[in-house]
Amino acid sequence: MKPITAICVILLFMWATPCLATTLQPCGSFKTVSGKVLIQRQQNTITAATGERLYPRDQIQSGKDGSASIVLQDNTIICVGPDSTMNMEKFIFNPSMYEYSLATRMIKGTFLFLSGIIAKIAPDNVKIQTPDGTIAVRGTRFLVEVL
């Protein structure tokens, strides 16, 4: 009975390790934070602060007086205005393996986007979703307001 239990534990650990590795890789950090800005990470709510890391699947929510700028690992800059909500859906920046992907969902509010390395190297792998459509990025900057 013990060998079966050990095998089950090893298989569970092998299955869980890749999942943990992807969720623990930060995609960037907050460069500035003003007013109330919250991060929803899984079931936790964290108050954003300068230097706080951002992870894939995090949701950023700014209050009526809140704003923040985020710098991603590829030097993409995303500024979130007051009363805004954005999900960081996916972020992969692995130059040694030629893996690049950036996907965000802008739910409401105002956002300034300044593209970084991913948009220059693999522009088709950058997706900015809004309730009305998807913005294709071609090494650019833009301001969007989602009502």
Tell me what you see in this structure.
It is a single chain. The chain contains two helices and twelve strands; from the N terminus they run H-E-E-E-E-E-E-E-E-E-H-E-E-E. With 147 residues, it is an alpha+beta fold. The chain has one domain: Jelly Rolls. Strands 1, 2, 3, 4, 5, 6, 7, 8, 9, 10, 11 and 12 form a twelve-stranded mixed sheet that branches. The chain is globular, with a radius of gyration of 18 Å. This is FecR family protein. Keywords: Signal.
Question: Tell me about the biggest sheet?
Answer: 12 strands, mixed
Assembly state: single chain
Strand and helix order = HEEEEEEEEEHEEE
CA distance, first residue to last residue: 60 Å
CATH C-level name: Mainly Beta
Q: What CATH architecture label applies?
A: Sandwich
Q: Segments where pLDDT lies below 50 for 5+ residues? A: 5-23
CATH topology: Jelly Rolls
Number of domains: 1
Instruction: Tell me the Rg in angstroms.
Output: 18 Å
Q: What portion of residues belong to β-strands?
A: over 45%
Give the beta-strand count. 12
Annotation field: number of helices? 2
Q: What's the mean pLDDT score?
A: 88
Backbone shape: globular
| Structural category | alpha+beta
Q: Residue share in helices?
A: 10-25%
